[in-house]
Batch of 2 targets.
Target 1
Amino acid sequence: MKYIDGFRNSESEVAVSRQIKELASALDRQVTIMEVCGTHTMSIAKFAIRNLLPENIRLVSGPGCPVCVTPQGYINTALELAMGGKIIMTFADMMNVPGTKSSLSSIRSSGARIETCYSPESAIEAAVKNPDDEVVFLGVGFETTIGPVISIVSSACARNIRNISLLTSFKVIPPAMEALAADKELRIDAFLCPAHVSAIIGADAYRPFVAKYHRPCVVAGFEPLDILGGIKSIIEQVLKGEAKVENNYSRVVKDEGNPKAMSFINKYLEPADSYWRGIGIIPESGMSLKNEFSPFDAEKRFGMTIVNDEEKKGCRCGDVLKGKIVPPDCPLFATKCTPSSPVGPCMVSSEGTCAAYYKYSK
Ligand code: SF4
């Protein structure tokens, strides 16, 4: 069977898979490669990439899904704001993420004003249409999403709109990679770096990490050949005893990234410690609104404190997000926890590892 373009050509995939097997036969140990991108996670599951690899190459998914790493306490705070009468605007993938007692979708059916949107600009429109109400946008995401979401603050300043704010849980990827690489128990040998995030931060952003932790990092696209090519590059580095950054996705990612997007982000936000679901606090792995923009910070504006609550009993999202286990190792997987009745966020999000395993492995 041949796919539609050069990146989905089954003959090429099989050929690269053979090369990987050949290279891997020279390894004297198992090599664990982590992908840190929800879209990679879905592609790997969808195209059954694991089936094309030899046994000594282990692919594990990391904390690459922004919804999955957003802590339960954040959801609880969003629920509290909604129940306090605020209009909550959010991307749809947050709707079913469980808080301690309920989710946004369940309280919406009880009358809370929660609207889903495709573009942050809709939040501005909602604020203009409802001048006597407070609109809160749920700002969740990695470097790729931060810019578009922060444009709400930019537009609100330019248009003097004051009844809008952001409940932020922005996260940045390199510090999370550091936390995982530093955890000796996890034994992650190399990273397949995210594509979209890298388009913003650039391949160069991983160089300090590689210099410090000596782990190969390869930026790869989402097509099967991109992913297999990235894995092959990693094994070649491991065999040579090298650790460097390779940008295999130069058709999209520049070494320097997108300086314009980064400078826009840095105008409004500054680095902050951040709590990752299942992992804990990672220093400087988040971004918060600068003090001068605190009127747009929903936590400060409404005197809220996000309390990082306990996870759901039995849910092992934390271990899944660290690549410590794969979803079928969770006793709730596909029994008590399914996409229609999710227990943890890794089963809710369209980019969650548990959802990927459920959809494609079953
Ligand atoms: S299968 Fe469900 S309960 Fe288990 S780790 Fe995944 S999301 Fe959590």
Target 2
Amino acid sequence: MVDFALPEEVVDLQKLAREFAISEIRPAEAELDAMRDPEAAFTSETYRSVVKKMHEIGLHKTTVPSESGGLGLSGVASYVIEEELAFGGTGLASRALIAPIGAAVIAGSGIAAKHPFYKDYVEAFVEDTEGKHSGCWAITEPGRGSDFLEIDGETTFSTTAVHNPANGTWKINGAKAAWVTNGWEADIILLMATARPDMGMEGTAVFLLPGDLPGISRGRPLDKLGMRALNQAEIFFDEVEVPEEFLLFDAGPAYPMLLEMIVTGGNTAVATLAVGAARAAYETALQYSKERVQGGKAIFEHQLIAMKLFDAFRDIEAARALIWKSAWLMESNRPDLRISFAARSMACNMAMRVTAEMVQVLGGYGISKEYPVEKFYRDVKLLQIMDGTLERISLTAAARL
Ligand SMILES: Cc1cc2nc3c(=O)[nH]c(=O)nc-3n(C[C@H](O)[C@H](O)[C@H](O)COP(=O)(O)OP(=O)(O)OC[C@H]3O[C@@H](n4cnc5c(N)ncnc54)[C@H](O)[C@@H]3O)c2cc1C
């Protein structure tokens, strides 16, 4: 029997996340969005303060297992919370989504004992009430964007990892793209690098390493159209010597399976960000339409406006239902890349359409900075590209039909 009811503790957390989104994320995102210099934005008191508050109430560790001090959310529950954060703003919601990646991998795969850094990191991350710690996933490169989705292909990354059998260490060289979420501040990096070029994508090795190893440096935070509250930056690796304990998976057939798992979860998450942003635009426009009077009545009373709002309501509900199905499949250990990519494609296209229509509902006020709808519209454009363009993910999913 399919059941859409959420457990009481998830409903409580959903309420907490929604209140935080409205009272803290929304105003902080508006301020950060207006700052012209991204570096100034990410060193500002506004940024530090909202990230600190997010950590204080535990929203940075939703997906870290509870045995390690996290909130232990998985499946539908984690996406429910993510939607609420994105309702406040997709930039800070994305930070919260990706920040726990290092701690969650260490705690979830039981590798804490492999190296003292791992054990110390998980403890420091779950207890971090300052917002000092966060992780990132570095896969795409300036010259290798969509190519990361050539899951079983011949493509290789230009970032290389060379093993030294004499002492077991690895030497890493290369650069990851300016779009790496949290790339500017992450202190732990999940890195994909080519260790065996002769094996194509299967020749990719996966490392989980401290972000401050000698030879690692960052570009400036990316200046961009939307999601300006999210720090993104290039990461450079120059002769970085990595102890063998930081190798998570060596090159081999496990890589395509691991990547498939990551992109299935990741694309469902990006879909969730889209639903949160679309809902934020819809709720703003709905309220506005009941207050704004034209033609002698509230514009909501004009059928064409009511129709736009109903269409938005319908499409948001449908996109969320598909996300929940994808999340439920993952929770039941039956992750399905096609359903995840269908949810992502539907939700992101829906959000682009809905946010544009909600700008239209507000008329001239829709494009004005006085209302947040124009920002939701700009933010959503990035979600059609994040974690694989919609075109490229659709091709991957289509090949599985
Ligand atoms: C908000 C955001 C967050 C991101 N976060 C991260 C992150 O955390 N870590 C990380 O490593 N990367 C991240 N990225 C990078 C992201 O994964 C890439 O931008 C994306 O995969 C596309 O690569 P590209 O930008 O190089 O575009 P390209 O691959 O150059 O694509 C350009 C165009 O060509 C099309 N195209 C490309 N290949 C094909 C093909 N085979 N068939 C048909 N059409 C094709 C694309 O659809 C697109 O329209 C992020 C990006 C954004 C926008």
